[in-house]
Amino acid sequence: METIKTLRVTSFLTLFPAVMTCTNCGFTLAEEGNDLHSRLSKLDAIIASLTAERQRLQAESDAIVYPILSLPTEITTEIFRRWCVLRSRSRPYPSEGPLLLAQICHQWRQIALHTPELWRDLHFTDRSSVELFKLWLDRSRDLSLNLAFDSWDIALTGRFIEASMVHSHRWQVVELNLPIVFYTTLDLSNVSLPILHSISLKNYFSGERTVGAGTVLNAPLLREAHIHTFPDLKVDFLRPKLTSLTLQHAIDLTKCIILLRGCPDLVKLALSTSGQGPVQTDSLVLPALESLECDLTAASILEHLTLPRLQRLRVTETETDVPQHTVLQNFIRRSACPLGFLSIENPGTTDTLTSCLIAVSDSVSDLEVTRGRPGHLLAALKLVEVLPRLKILRAQFQGNILSDTDYQDFIDTVRMRLSPTPPRVALEGFTLHTFQYGNRRMPSAAILVQFRELAAIGLKIKFTTRMDQRSSSITRVVLDSWTE
Prior knowledge:
Strand content: 15-25%
Shape: extended
CATH class of the domain at 340-484: Alpha Beta
Helix content: 25-40%
Largest sheet: 15 strands, mixed
Distance between the termini: 81 Å
Structural class: alpha/beta
Number of helices: 13
Strand order of the largest sheet: 1-2-3-4-6-8-9-11-13-14-15-16-17-18-19
Low-confidence stretches: none
CATH topology of the domain at 340-484: Leucine-rich repeat, LRR (right-handed beta-alpha superhelix)
């Protein structure tokens, strides 16, 4: 049809040559028209060539088999499961995880959509939508759920909780970090939670007072309860079956002792207590407890516990006017426990730290000291009677900028522990975390050489430093020879 149209125009111009030239601009229609048609023909040929080339390349692309796509569906599914488990530990955004996998290709999308295990770990924040949350719930089908809400928007929180309540029978792990006022209306007393294993309650505004009570009674499988910074919130659990309990809200010591008497199966316990305990009371025995985190103050729970199986003790606060070493010594003697790990935060003076370490010297092989002064720790470790079985040292000197003199003292102390005099054992490794501002006070080259020499003889070392700039903070690894 186009050819016929062209012939007709050409015939017309041949019969009427006068119209072939424009009287205004001098445009010669025949000459220019032929040129345009020639260019169009060339473009048509180029398009045809490119189309053929595209079809050839597409055929080659379709023939390529990507090795990852040739795996059996079962293996790909298992890879997805393990990847999502690792991602869930870092709390990814809802737009990541299985949603990200589903965007790669059609095959992966089908696998992701048909694998409900990928959708059972839900972490939602203020930047998440309720619609996306419901989508995750639907795609998890009837599997158990691990829920985490991190929000200070009360209205949005209410919508999330309302949507999740329909699936309360599937709650397995629940972690809430919400506005403190929200908990005054949270009522789980009549909610059936048949497979709930762990619940954690935190809040943003710890300085506010909370009036109210929460009850989680219909949870026969509840084993872990973690309550943080709620001065007046009373939470009732099926305590006899708990194995892990956290009460980090300065609970009254007397009330705490009463509560713990109802938790005979505890394996892990973290407490922050206040007030004065009962004047006269029998020591509370928790026969299964292996890990304890507590204050070492006038309201210390240590004075009222006997823990024959305790292996890990973390002291989070100390007071210089309290005879901590006496409290520790009496506790260790009374419990006769196989304590292997001890962590002390903000130990105070050299005498205080030394006395505490001597009190636990018979068994501790792994020591961690945080927020203490380097000189206090090193002075204590140089004493023969301090921790003769020490194999691992973990020092974190946040808030202290170390000089080369401090580093040299640390290195000298480590070397002394490497060649011990019996009954001491040799140090096997240490971790050191320091604080720096800008580029000041970094270890000199001579100091770094000595650290590398220690690593070269087989000492396990992990040396990191936090660099605080004006608007950012980053942790850098100075040396890492640590291998398990």
